[in-house]
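Review form for a predicted model. The reviewer records the input and the model, then writes brief findings.
Reviewer: anonymous (R2)
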Amino acid sequence: MVKHRPVFENLITEIGNMWPQRQVDEEEHKIISSALREIKIFVKGYHWCNNYLMLSFLYPPFWELIKRLSGEKWEPKLHFIYWLPFDPLQPVYFECMLALQTWQAMTVIWTNMSGDFMFCLFLSHITTQFNLLSVRIRKLIYVPVDQQLIESYPLGQYSEEYLRKNKEAVDSYTPQQWEEKHFKEITEIVLQHQALIRLSRDIENMYSLTLLVNVVNSSLVICFCGFCSVVVEKWNETAYKSFLVTALSQTWFVCWYGQKLLDSVVEKWNETAYKSFLVTALSQTWFVCWYGQKLLDSSEGVAQAVYNSGWYRASKKIRRSLMIMLHRSQKGVGVTTYGFSVISLASYSTIIKTSWSYFTLLLNFSNK
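Model under review:
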């Protein structure tokens, strides 16, 4: 963010200026409200999913400290195990290392979560602007309703709405005036379309290498977490674990003297760490790929909007401009992983297939 601060500021400014400053119609309102509702659900769901992941990893050592303070037998544990030139389980060293590893885990999870939020938020807003641009293109050219254009068709509905709002212009404009009006609107549409493509490229330049590392890392994380869930945690015991957690949590609220039972809950909780990590990794990769797919679909939707407009009623000059926009829009705008692949649901499927291949390979070695 420090390195690309001018780019971030420009993204926020330009996207903010693109939002309609006028009263929007029902179709535009539906697009905007749906996009804002989706991103709100994503932010909340992804936030709590990551916080649960963090809690599942950070909880066990602190529970041991609580047992120590209550005078019971306890076993010192740390979140992560790595080589140190001293014994980290000795007094003072243990407390310092626990605080350091807690800070490390929180920093990593919240930093990654913030980066994913920014990426998906930018793509969500650009996708919304592409969809609003498509609506504007479909309503660009007025086509009178007749035997060829039925009123129930989308273009007929747009034309009837345009006639109600601009009846005086429809009755009085000459062909030259229509051409000037359409050319002015097309110029604004083309400039906005180019700006959206440029902003998408800015996001790709900032996130491209990070997305490549994310895709490779996600494949390995999903593979190893699935392997640990099956081999270490015994995945088929999940139903009994969830039942036990529910029953014992009720006992915790009813009576403090169920502490021994609560210890077993903690033990079972610790065994679900890999599963929570697996679910989080799958959801994180899916959200990134899903918003990449939405960007592709919305950018290609501009070409469909040009085709569905009343282009055949426009002058040759206007049709030529629309034809250029049609050809440009047929190539979707997407974010790539440093040029290797486009972030989309197809790439998510590739990640899952790769992870499954690694997983089966590890499982075969484990069985041998």
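Findings: The radius of gyration is 28 Å.
Further findings: The longest helix spans residues 175-231.
Recommendation: see findings above.
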